[in-house]
Write a structure and sequence with these properties.
alpha+beta, Nuclear Transport Factor 2, Chain: A, 4-stranded antiparallel β-sheet
Length: 258
């Protein structure tokens, strides 16, 4: 207890352990109340007594009974009785907003996921351009489209683009996926790879192999799978030709002879 708490602690309320226990037993069963754990000073003439909670499922929790008294009065008044987690209590994890808990694949048909106006992943088109690799001629077209109110309102910011690239590269479309590690070739040399435009084209493309797991998805250039356009089977991997047919020449007469 600090020096300030000792000065503020009211001796009458601090000694009113029986009063606090009586108030607690009026609210909960005696079997749920353990030993007195001490008290804490909450303010001038305000003290909270703590009792161990022995209720099943509440290990480490404490009953808190707050008492007070008016100035120059000896009678102690009960303010509240509550159950609070102690230092070693098992409590629920910190709340995570629903928006931050969403994962790819969680959205269902009809679900809406609005993007905040100040989302750092997006910037106004007029400030960054529809494509940072555009030529000067296209920049002039962008200006005209802006004046006419055409085109997209916002595009990816550098932060949004980098976050997407990191997410893709570290995930299933990247080089560390099990299917990529077992692949004989990388996507950058596959004929089914559709090139992207813009800065992301340096690392990613889109798979167009209808037989591959990643068909229609973004893949890293150094990703890979067994559906590579140039993959060939070795002689050991090729299917074995069927055995030549056997013609049965045994007739009924031959069978009767046996």
């Amino acid at each position: 207890m600090s020096t300030l708490e000792r000065k503020l602690t009211d001796a009458v309320i601090a000694d009113a352990i029986d009063t606090a226990r009586t108030a607690l037993l009026a609210e909960v069963d005696a079997s749920d109340v353990g030993e007195h754990l001490g008290h804490q000073t909450d303010g001038l003439r305000v003290v909270t007594h703590l009792f161990d909670c022995s209720r099943k499922g509440y290990r480490g929790w404490q009953w808190a009974v707050t008492l007070t008294r008016a100035s120059r009065q000896k009678k102690v008044t009960v303010v509240e009785v509550v159950l609070l987690p102690g230092p070693e209590a098992i409590v629920a994890p910190a709340w995570v907003p629903y928006r931050e808990r969403l994962q790819p694949g969680d959205m269902s048909p009809g679900d809406l996921l609005p993007v905040a106006d100040d989302d750092p992943r997006l910037v106004p088109t007029y400030s960054f351009g529809d494509d940072p690799l555009d030529t000067d001629d296209k920049a002039q077209i962008r200006t005209v489209a802006k004046d006419l109110g055409l085109g997209r309102v916002r595009v990816l910011s550098p932060e949004g683009r980098d976050a997407a690239a990191e997410r893709w590269y570290d995930g299933e479309p990247g080089p560390d996926a099990p299917i990529a590690k077992a692949a004989p070739h990388h996507c950058h040399s596959c004929g089914f790879l559709v090139r992207l435009s813009g800065p992301l084209s340096e690392l990613f493309g889109v798979c167009a192999n209808g037989d591959a797991n990643d068909d229609g998805r973004v893949v890293a250039h150094d990703h890979g799978c067994g559906g590579h356009s140039e993959v060939r089977l070795t002689k050991r991997q090729q299917p074995q030709p069927p055995a030549p047919p056997v013609i049965d020449t045994v007739s009924l007469d031959d069978l009767e002879a046996f």
